Amino acid sequence: MGLLSKKDSKLILDPLADNNPITIQVLGICSALAITAQLKASIVMAISVIFVLGIGNVVISLMRNVIPSKIRIIVQLVVVAALVIIVDQILKAYAYTLSKELSVFIGLIITNCIIMGRFEAFALGNGPWRSFLDGIGNALGYGVILIIVGFFRELLGSGTLLGFKVLGDPIEKTGLYAIGYENNGFMLLSPMALIVVGIIIWVQRSKNKALIEEH
Amino acid sequence: MAINTDKNSYTIIFSVIMVLVVGSLLAFIAQGLKPTIKENERIEIQQNILYAMGVNENEEGSREFIAAEKAEQTFAEYIKKQLVIQNGEVTEDENAYLIDIKKEKNLAKDPSYSRRLPLFVGEKDGKTYYVAPIRGKGLWDAIWGYVALNEDMVVQGVFFDHKGETPGLGANIKERFFMDDFTGEKLFDADNNFVGITAAKGNADPKNDNKDDNEVDAIAGATITGDGVSAMLKSDLRLYVPYFQKLKNN
Fold it and tell me: Fewer Cβ within 10 Å of end Cβ, chain A: N or C?
């Protein structure tokens, strides 16, 4: 028996695979399409969402008995917005170029449906520890997909990973480019992210038939 | 113990306390990080000016700024003089790059105020560059930039940036493919009138081979941002014309 009980570890592991927020619940697609042209931006976005969702879920869970039900959505929004502003300010101070690249997307975390969804569906009805696990689990599930998509888009679109030219130099014609390989510029455009997400969904569902909905 | 969370008075007291707590927390954090953020913005101005001049990390035409750690030193190396033009008078000021263009533009709404115009004189490979800051409005928010000119006010390089233009459309003004089109463009027409440079749709010159037409190819889907770029080039660079005329006559 490890650190977590079976029920608790399910909270973390479920969203990673069989209840993934992006591929199964199809939430948080907007940011998954927008910022995944580079692996680095995907990783930072994933970390930011882990931070915001983990802490946000705990805060909401601690407040769940005192939040007036009439204004609970507003309270949730205030909590996310405050956390997002903190993330934004810290990035501006310590990772300035990155915060410029992410620009509006950091602000968009506020509207990320995963966050509001977890607050409303889980944190309002569960204790802080379980809410924390649920938040981390869902954010990780979101982050994993983001990083997979970012990996393929940067590799196939720019021929780089985290900025390193892993496939050789397209101008000097070294590495793969020497034998006539070309970068696929399409991969840098948002629609290709949707296609990559689609392929992930396809692979996942064909491996686990239970996920296929009946029509 | 159960609190009746449905009562109106409770709701109001709750929201007041929440606003106070969250507000002061954010104010505290913002104040604490302010000096670091200000310093980052200062370095960024230096990076932008160098970028417009074509001094980039790696080499000419590279997409990357001079690294932040090297910016201060590289700036001092390439920028020979920083000038402030006010009322036709030119003074040197080594902190001219810190002049807030937004503030100056606002102050200049009062006709009795004469605007301070910063101009950075840089040298690279024996050529002299005059870099002027510009600022205007895009579709959603502010856009700004730096334009490197030669003695004849022919554009040698530009850098544009924006606060919140649409990603993939207006935000592309800061992409190399758009900015590079400006290089070599003239601000004067054939009759020597100041006309600026227009981001034009359907100018039948998508490769931008014609450098005398005062036009660059606009970005599809970014009409208003493009118009903003044209407008700020025209309105802000016009102010520098007297200085360049004087420069020529001497």
Answer: C
CA dihedral angle for residue B244, residue B50, residue B168, residue B237, rounded to 10 degrees: -10
Q: What is the pLDDT of residues B18-34, one digit of tens each?
A: 999 999 999 999 999 99
Interface membership of A92 toward B (CB under 8 Å): yes
Q: Tens of pLDDT along B102-122?
A: 888 888 888 888 888 999 999
Mean pLDDT of A136-147: 90
Is residue B33 helix, strand or coil? Answer: helix
Query: What is the pLDDT, as a whole number, of residue B60?
Result: 59
Q: Please, are residues B82 and B118 in contact by the beta-carbon 8 Å criterion?
A: yes
Secondary-structure breakdown of chain A: helix, strand, coil percentages, each rounded to the nearest 5: 75, 0, 25
**Chain B CB within 8 Å of residue A171 CB:** no
Coil, helix or strand at residue A92:
helix
Give the 3-state secondary structure of B106-125.
HHCCCCCCCCCEEEEEEEEC
How crowded is the C-beta side of B162, counted as CA atoms within 13 Å?
A: 25
- The ipTM estimated for the assembled molecules is 0.71
A29 has pLDDT over 90: no
Residue B231 confidence (pLDDT): 93
Q: With an 8 Å Cβ cutoff, are B5 and A69 in contact? A: yes
Find residues 36-75 of chain A whose CB sits inside 8 Å of chain B.
65-71, 74-75
